[in-house]
Model the fold of this input.
Amino acid sequence: MPRTATRAPTPDWTDPDCPVARTLDLVGDRWSLLVIRDAMDGARSFTEFQRRTGIARNILTDRLRKLTAHGVLAQRTAPSGRRREYVLTDAGRDLFPVIVTLRQWGERHAFAPGETHSTLVDQHGTPVPEIVPAGADGTPLGADTTQVRKV
Done:
């Protein structure tokens, strides 16, 4: 199903024809991904994001504005009615497999053997299985079995 672009092409794109480059232009810095990670984990307020990430207020303000402007987050009135909160949009929730894949890569390559780290589990407490891209026939895909076709 086709998706609606979150932003029309601009001269600011790193590589206007590459979906990877455009995605990185929108969410590719560490602070944006940590804000998205924490939103997926239930953070909603500016204070929660700052406490969880340790990010400086000015940088957090910038990232929240950028993620909101590009349709990854939306602002709404909190249930208390006193504050605004940030929630993931459909586009933001679509980043879940990206966050899981980054997490799984980190589990394999960013920790020494036996070093403790957090684990992502499903609602039953079972660790989330490794995400592996697969072709239409179910065959696992990798860098050696795929290619970019410029259109």
Notes: The first helix runs from residue 19 to 27. The longest strand covers residues 73-77.
